[in-house]
Specification:
Oligomer: single chain
Strand content: 25-35%
CATH architecture: 4-Layer Sandwich
CATH topology: Metallo-beta-lactamase, Chain A
Strand order of the largest sheet: 6-5-4-3-2-1-14-15
Number of strands: 15
Radius of gyration: 18 Å
Structural class: alpha/beta
Distance between the termini: 24 Å
CATH class: Alpha Beta
Low-confidence stretches: none
Helix content: 10-25%
Number of helices: 6
Number of domains: 1
Length: about 300
């Protein structure tokens, strides 16, 4: 195995929530909906298929044939709307293993992707994709192994249900926790489990506390959290690097800059996720004590 393959790299392809918001005021952080790629010891793991998945797909065209594992937190539209435009899935010779929990109505992950591409919502069916697509239904709390990477999941607090993931390899761990709403009286034990001692926690913090509790337009019950609550989780779980994710489409670059300053002051080393940026984790050795590199 080459040194290049002995790596754990996180690439951000879509960091917005709810709806894409391209435009002059969202250039620095990006306007695509959720998609994160993790390359772990040669295995490509993709989390969620928002419009950022389309962008990732374009970069993969020069690397074919390609094999990847795609994990969905849930199938609300902003997390799946890029899948029908994921060009590598239309090309024979590629292979994608697709994972997700069964929905509360009993629909499998395959059924839900099939249904979003039916008339009158979409012009061509799922069957037009020529790549080998293999669908797997995950049990809540199930742990699976892909190559050397261990992937855990846990249920999140979101309308219609969602799950978060934790990826571990050689003593490194990354938690991907979106979409989830905090509990007012306690910290979510499932979120704490996923985040426990993580090198990187990527977490839904769509709102500020002020927006969440705004009496004119309360966001209580909408299924999302705040950056202040994310900091509480990071402190309790002793997270090494906190990454604020699932930015509200109404938050422009200047607004997010201000939030970033507040988050970094509250939890040093924290960042806001930006489309096109990467984080590389380095296994701890005697020669290096720094496990997190930003690109």
């Amino acid at each position: 195995m080459t040194n290049q393959s002995k790596r754990f790299k996180i690439n951000f392809w879509g960091v917005r929530g709810s709806i894409p918001c391209p435009g002059a005021e969202t250039v620095r952080y990006g306007g695509n909906t959720p998609c994160i790629e993790m390359v772990v010891c040669g295995e490509r793991l993709i989390f969620d298929g928002g419009t950022g998945l389309r962008v990732l797909g374009q970069t993969l065209l020069g690397q074919m044939p390609v094999e990847a594992n795609i994990f969905f937190t849930h199938t609300h539209w902003d997390h799946i709307q890029g899948f029908p435009f994921f060009v590598p899935a239309f090309i024979k010779g590629n292979r994608f293993n697709i994972y997700g929990a069964i929905a509360p109505n009993g629909f499998t992950i395959k059924q839900r992707h099939h249904d979003q591409m039916l008339h009158p919502n979409f012009p061509v069916p799922l069957q037009i994709m020529q790549a080998d697509l293999h669908f797997f239904d995950l049990d809540i709390g199930e742990t699976i192994q892909i190559g050397e990477a261990t992937i855990e999941n846990a249920k999140l607090n979101h309308p219609g249900e969602a799950i978060g993931y934790r990826v571990s390899w050689q003593g490194l761990s990354v938690a991907y926790v979106t979409d989830t709403e905090h509990f007012p009286e306690r910290l979510d034990k499932n979120v704490l489990h996923l985040a426990d001692g993580a090198d990187v926690l990527i977490i839904d913090a769509t709102y500020t506390d002020e927006e969440y509790h705004d009496p004119k337009s309360s966001k209580v019950g909408w299924g999302h959290s705040t950056w202040q609550e994310a900091v509480k989780i990071a402190r309790e779980a002793k997270v090494k690097k906190l990454v604020i994710f699932h930015h509200d489409p109404l938050h422009n670059d200047d607004f997010l800059d201000a939030v970033g300053e507040q988050v970094a002051a509250a939890y040093p080393g924290s960042i806001l996720a930006r489309e096109g940026e990467s984080i590389e984790l380095i296994p701890l050795t005697n020669e290096s004590a720094d496990k997190v590199l930003m690109n």
